[in-house]
Amino acid sequence: MLQKVKELLKQFINFRSLRVRLFFIILIVGIVPSAIMRHSVLQSYEQRAVEQRTQVVQNQLRVLADHLVNDDYLSRPYSTVVNAELEMLSNLYDGRVLIINSNFKIAKDTYGLSEGKTIISEEVVKCFKGESLSNYDAEIGYIEMTTPIIDNRNSEHPSKIIGVMLTSISSDYISSTMEILNRKAFIMEVIMNLIIITLALVLSAVLSKPFGRVTKAINDVRAGYSTELLSVPDMAETIHIVDAFNELLAQRKALDDSRQEFVANVSHELKTPITSMKVLADSLLMQENVPAELYREFLEDIVSEIDRENQIITDLLALVKMDKTASQMNIASININDLTELILKRLRPIARKKDVEVVFESERTVIAEVDEVKMTLIMTNLVENAIKYNHDHGWVKVVLDADHQYFTFKVSDSGIGIPEEALPQIYERFYRVDKSHSREIGGTGLGLAITKNAVLMHRGSITVSSSEEEGSTFLVKIPLTYIAQ
Ligand code: ADP
After folding, report:
1. Which end of the chain has fewer CB atoms at under 10 Å, N or C?
2. What pLDDT does 169 receive?
3. 375 and 410 share a domain?
C-alpha cells in the first residue's frame, strides 16, 4: 500500500507523465472557469445592488429636494416637516445628509456637526453644474451621492440649481448579503472542485491505463513470458504501438532465424573441405605401399580443398567486414572507366582459359563518389560470375553509362543463365543454383551477397534479368554523389 502511494507520488512529481498532464488539464479546464464564473456573478450582483439602492435613495432625495425648495429651507432651515423627513431618511439608510446652499455653505447636517461650514469639493461643484454623481466605496462601506436642489418656481430661470444635497448612506446591507453569497459560493466551489479533482484523478488514470498495459505487455515479452504482444485495443494509439512493436518482434525473429541459418551454413561450408581432406588422408593412411603418384594425386586434391577453405574464409571475412563498416565508407571521387579497365585487365586471364571474349563499352567518362574497395568487389564479382557461368567461346559485355544523377554498370553474358525460380534467392548467402557445378568452378555462394551489400551501402540498386541457356544481365545503378545516411 505504502509502496503504491510512493509510486503514485513519484509519478505526480513527473510532469512528463501523460497521466499527470491529463490530470492537470482536466483540473484547469474544470476549476478555472468555475472560479471566473463565481467571481463575475458576485461582482455583477454587487454592482446591481449598489445601482438599485442609489436609484431608490436618489428618488427619495429628489422628492425631498422639492420640499426643500417649496419650504425655502435653504434660507430658513427650520421646517419641522423637512427636518423630520431628513431624520427619517438618515435613519432609514443609516446615513448622513448635508444640505449645501449656493454659497457652498452647509445649511443643514443631519449629524449636526458641520452646519455653517463651507464645503468646496469636486462632487459638489460638479453637481452645481448639473452633474450629479454617485460613488461606492466597498472598503469603508458607504455609497456617496450628490443631488441638485432645483428651483422651478421662477419662470425666468427655470431649473435653477440653488443648492446641493451631499448624501452618504451605509452599504452594510449589500456587504452582508455579499458575504452570505460569497460563503455559499465558496462552499459550492469547494464541493465542485472536489468533484473535479476526483474526476481528473479517475479520468487521467482511465485514459492513461492502456499505455500501462502496453508497457506491461512489452515487459512480458522482454522477460520472455511471451513472444508476441497481446493486443491492447482500448485506443487507436495503443493499437498502433502494439502493431509496430509486433512488427519489430517479427523482424527481430526473422533476423535471428537468418543468423542461425547463416551460422549453420558457415559451419557446413567450412566442414565440407575438411571432411574431404580427412577422407583423402585416411584413405592414404589405410593403404600400405601406396605408390608415390597416388600420394601426389591425393595431396594435390588436399591442396585444392585447402584453397577452397581459404576462399570461403576470405569471402566470409569480406562479408563480415562489410557489416561492420556499414558506417565507415571510404568515399572518394573515382574515375569509374579507369577502374573498370583495371578490373577487366585482371580478369582477362581467367576469361582466356575458357576462350570467353570480354568487351567493354563506355558511353561516357564517369567520375563518381564511391568506396573504391567496395566498388572493385562489385565489379569483380559480377564480371567473374559472367565468365565463370559462361560457355566456352562465349562473350561478356560490360557497359558503363550515366545520367546527371546515377551511373549504371551493366554486365551481360552469353552463359548458362539462371532459372526463373532461383532469381529471388541468388543474393542470399551460400545460395548456389547448381551446388556441385558452382563448387567445381570455385564458387562459395557469397559473391552476390557481398555485391548486393556493397551496392546498398552506396545507396544503389542491383537488378537481374536472365533466361536459361541464353545468358544473364546484371544492372547496377549507383548515385554519382554519395548520400550519407
Ligand atoms: P558463387 O560464389 O557460387 O558464384 P554468387 O553469390 O556469386 O556465388 O552467385 C550465386 C549463384 O548465382 C551462383 O552459384 C550461380 O548459380 C548464380 N549466378 C551468379 N551469376 C551468374 C551468371 N552470370 N550466370 C549464371 N548464373 C549466375
Report:
1. N
2. 93
3. yes
Strands 142-151 and 134-137: antiparallel
Measured distance CA(273)–CA(310) in Å, rounded: 10
Question: 295 alpha carbon to ligand 1 midpoint, in Å?
Answer: 34
Ligand 1 pocket mutation pick from 385, 429, 476 by most atoms within 8 angstroms of CB? 385
Q: Are residues 469 and 348 in the same domain?
A: yes
Could you tell me the distance, in angstroms and rounded to a whole number, from the CA of residue 253 to the centre of ligand 1?
28
Residue 18 lies in a domain: no
On whether the CB atoms of residues 128 and 166 are closer than 8 A, the answer is no
Residue 354 · residue 394 · CB < 8 Å: yes
Q: How far is the CA of 475 from the centre of ligand 1 (A)?
A: 15
The pLDDT value recorded for residue 7 is: 76
Q: Which of 177, 210, 225 is the last residue of a domain?
A: 177
User: Based on the number of CB atoms within 10 Å of its own CB, is 203 exposed (0-12), middle (13-18) or buried (19 or more)?
Assistant: middle
Does 346 lie in the same domain as 250? no
Domain containing 243 equals 236-320
Over residues 228-238, the pLDDT tens digits come to 766 777 788 88
**What pLDDT is attached to residue 326?**
59
Kindly state whether residue 231 falls inside one of the protein's structural domains: no
Same domain, 168 and 121: yes
The whole-number pLDDT of residue 324 equals 62
CATH classification of the domain holding 120:
3.30.450.20
Q: Which atom of ligand 1 is the closest one to the Cα of 449?
A: 6
- Do residues 249 and 229 lie in contact, with contact meaning Cβ atoms separated by under 8 Å? yes
Whole-number Å distance, alpha carbon 442 to ligand 1 midpoint, is 11
Specify the number of domains making up the chain.
3
Hey, whose CA ends up nearest to atom 23 of ligand 1?
Answer: 386
**pLDDT by residue (tens digit) across 432-457?**
888 777 777 777 888 999 899 999 99
CB of 438 closer than 6 angstroms to any ligand 1 atom: yes
| Whether residue 379 has its Cβ less than 6 Å from ligand 1 | no
Below-50 pLDDT ranges, the chain: none
- For 392-460, strand residue ranges (E) read 395-402, 406-413
Q: For residue 39, report the distance from its CA to the centre of ligand 1, in Å.
A: 84
pLDDT at residue 227, as a whole number: 72
* CATH classification at residue 302: 1.10.287.130
